[in-house]
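--- STAGE predict ---
source: upstream dedup step, 1 unique chain passed
mode: sequence only
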Amino acid sequence: MKWDIITHSPEETREFGRALGQRIRFGLTIRLNGDLGSGKTCLVQGLARGLAVPEGYDITSPTYTLINEYPGRMPFYHADLYRLEAGVDAESLGLGELFDTQSVLAVEWEERLDESEWPEISLKIELLTRDDETRRVRLIGYGLETDNLIRETLENWKSGRFQNAGISA
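--- STAGE serialize ---
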């Protein structure tokens, strides 16, 4: 199932990421897709705070290092495949070994990996730029646990301070 929300600022995109991160209780691969400047890194910054990555860590896109690792209540890895050609192999990048762990792995430019490379249980997040500040955030869960995570996050998001965020399934 697909769910869409609308965020109206980078701060709101970060806050949604934080809300999602606070609710993650199992190892999960999060696949991020969107144009340059669409808010992928903003969302990951919030996700990191929701996973209790200490404030002293600057969460930036690992465009040149490929994967950054952060401490938190669960190990958190942030990968950026932007500089890679489409069709790369997850194992050769070191991502395969992270798929089946009790960690959270957020991968920007997920479309660089073939669909068959991704684990069965994952969360795909597509960010679409509507204007300078507004984003449509589409959440696609693969696996029952992931669908439940999305539902719980959206229930809390909807009833929280962002009541006008716009949610649709």
